């Protein structure tokens, strides 16, 4: 994130990087164990990608909402200062376990 020069925005979300390292799931009472074992790696990759996309979109939307709230005229200055200080760090990575 970086502070935008535009006065209608306090900061801009440049990128959100989400990585799901491990994902374990199982299908119970399946009558097609061989098919499940064959398709599991493909399903795992697809599910991981969709989870990453959903989390990325949620964080982006949430931060854009916060930015919109900060631009509103009735925002408390102390909250504004704390938020700016919080985002002075270059990048954040959320640990997902």
From TrEMBL:
Entry-linked InterPro entries: HAM1-like_C
Residue span(s) of domain HAM1-like C-terminal: 19-71
Position of the signal peptide: none
Protein name listed in UniProt: HAM1-like C-terminal domain-containing protein
Species assigned in the record: Piloderma croceum (strain F 1598)
């Amino acid at each position: 994130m970086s502070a935008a020069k535009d006065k209608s925005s306090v900061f801009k979300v440049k990128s959100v990087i989400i990585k799901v390292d491990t994902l374990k799931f199982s299908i119970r009472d399946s009558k097609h164990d061989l098919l499940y074992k064959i398709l599991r790696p493909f399903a795992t990759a697809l599910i991981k990608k969709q989870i990453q996309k959903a989390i990325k979109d949620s964080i982006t939307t949430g931060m854009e909402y916060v930015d919109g709230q900060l631009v509103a005229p009735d925002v408390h200055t102390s909250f504004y200062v704390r938020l700016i200080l919080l985002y002075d760090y270059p990048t954040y990575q959320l640990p997902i376990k």
